[in-house]
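User: Hi! I have a protein structure encoded as tokens and I'd like to know what sequence might fold into it. I'm fairly new to this, so please keep things simple.
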């Protein structure tokens, strides 16, 4: 302990957040900040004012404290959530050892829960048939609206929310004039200095083809529905609110809202009384069991590609994710579906 420099948990976490700016996307930094907020609260409750004093016994107590839902006033958390919390703490403690705040080996005493097969993978998705139904409804009821464009771009490109949010008017090639492309496309660009980083940073910069129909609706949105505003950096976002570039939460709430069956007049599959259902309120749309997130649109698109036997390399490049990530977190084909598709490529079956 004599070789360590005294530092408070708050100051050490602040230094960690600052160091992350050099290598991590804003979304990753925000996630780490949220997770370590509970650790700071724990240290405060345990009266750990100097991080040098943190021990393996404290780390075990923190694990139990978080497992029981302490730190955010909620019920006991899921194992996969606990694993994410502890993995973030482990990375923080490795950084803390580099600045002489804790012993070099302390991070090794943060053991991560062992997940059973598939336990750390979400089982929700927006099934391709539902995605198409929602798009058909939007195309007829709200053509070229912001809601329509958000769902359309998420579905056609399979891109992450951050990539769609970061599109500017100058990133569009709606008439297919790009010399190396054979049709309309959008250009996803990593711009961390002006608020729109990509998940995989420069490696995420890419052109994605879109359909002629999508290009038509984008053009109509720009001409008839897009508020003519710039963002705080003077850029011209494709998708806007009256105040500028929308937040990531705008995309999530849009998906929660439009994926509720009752929103488009379909029968409720959950036997709920529409007049009494809390999920009919816009601020509680996520509480509908049928509501889906942008991540679920992405997994639905991967499933669609795989069912259509689109080559894995093509899907990997288009969605800017490794094959392992696509297989583990996005492909929602059943085991039977995968077996049937493999048999199509094998002789004498």
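Assistant: Happy to help. Inverse folding works backwards from shape to sequence: for each of the 349 positions I chose a residue that suits the local structure. Here it is:
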């Amino acid at each position: 302990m004599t070789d360590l420099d005294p530092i408070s948990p708050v100051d050490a976490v602040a230094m960690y957040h600052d160091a992350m700016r050099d290598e991590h996307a804003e979304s990753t930094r925000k996630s780490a900040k949220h997770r370590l907020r509970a650790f700071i609260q724990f240290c405060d409750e345990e009266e750990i004012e100097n991080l040098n004093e943190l021990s393996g016994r404290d780390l075990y107590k923190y694990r139990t404290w978080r497992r029981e839902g302490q730190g955010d006033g909620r019920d006991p958390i899921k194992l996969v959530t606990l694993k994410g919390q502890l993995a973030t703490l482990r990375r923080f403690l490795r950084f803390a050892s580099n600045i002489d705040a804790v012993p070099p080996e302390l991070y090794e005493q943060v053991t991560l829960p062992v997940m059973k097969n598939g336990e750390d993978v979400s089982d929700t998705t927006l099934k391709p048939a539902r995605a198409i139904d929602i798009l058909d409804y939007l195309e007829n009821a709200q053509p070229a609206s912001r809601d329509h464009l958000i769902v359309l771009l998420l579905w056609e490109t399979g891109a992450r929310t951050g990539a769609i949010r970061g599109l500017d008017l100058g990133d569009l090639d709606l008439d297919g004039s790009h010399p190396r492309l054979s049709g309309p496309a959008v250009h996803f660009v990593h711009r961390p200095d002006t608020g729109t980083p990509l998940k995989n940073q420069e490696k995420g910069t890419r052109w994605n083809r879109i359909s002629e129909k999508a290009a038509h609706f984008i053009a109509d949105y720009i001409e008839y529905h897009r508020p003519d505003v710039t963002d705080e950096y003077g850029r011209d976002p494709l998708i806007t609110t009256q105040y500028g570039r929308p937040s990531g939460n705008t995309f999530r709430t849009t998906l929660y809202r439009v994926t509720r069956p009752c929103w488009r007049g379909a029968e409720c599959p959950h036997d709920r009384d529409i007049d009494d259902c809390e999920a009919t309120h816009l601020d509680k749309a996520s509480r509908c069991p049928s509501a889906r997130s942008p991540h679920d649109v992405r997994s639905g698109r991967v499933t669609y590609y795989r069912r259509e036997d689109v080559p894995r390399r093509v899907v990997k490049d288009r969605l800017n994710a490794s094959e392992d990530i696509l297989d583990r977190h996005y492909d929602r084909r059943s085991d039977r579906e995968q077996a049937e598709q493999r048999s199509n490529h094998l002789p004498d079956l």
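A useful reference point when you look it over: Residues 128-259 form a domain with the hpI Integrase; Chain A fold (CATH 1.10.443.10). Feel free to ask if any position seems puzzling.
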